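Support reply, case 0932

Customer input (verbatim):
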Amino acid sequence: MLSKKNALLFSSTFVVIVVIFIFTKSQNGAAQSSSKNIFSEGLSIFSGFIGSGNSSSTYNEDNAVVSASLLKSETPDNLYWVAVATPQDAGEKKAQEELLESWATLYGKIYSGKATRKEIDEYYKAQIKLQEDQLELLRLMEDRYPERLDDEKRRMILAGKELYGQKLKNVTEEYKRHINK
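Our regenerated output:
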């Protein structure tokens, strides 16, 4: 079962990467070397795939479709920033690693039948919040910045909302099954 959870985590991460990658295309269909990104930070892992392709150039946050710092300031308690976004420094990286490790430990305990009710609650409430928070970011971009989104970006937001909505439903149902055992 642990590999099933890892597969779900991997597929979720992949979808986020794809959504971000699509948002990094130029808004007006200009050359692929455009540096317009939906997030201007937190993408260092993808720097070889996006932007101008010139690793020596510095990214200018002013060119972002919606800057990550703006979204983060609007949603500081959003779990996305800790659990999913690429860490910006050693402290953030350590916090993310510790969080993901604690979730993996809780998940292992749940599926081995050794978790307490408190541990089950802790794990599933965090997973539910993560899905809700990812939905919140998509809604925020759609509601507050519609003029910055072309049809392709709107379709990706819709697909992301459907994906995270389904994942939220699945995690909630799984939580109910575990607490009713």
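We compared this against your earlier run and they match. Two observations from our side: The chain has one domain: 2-179. Helices lie at 2-23, 68-74, 80-83, 90-111, 117-144, 151-179. Please reopen the case if you see a mismatch on your end.
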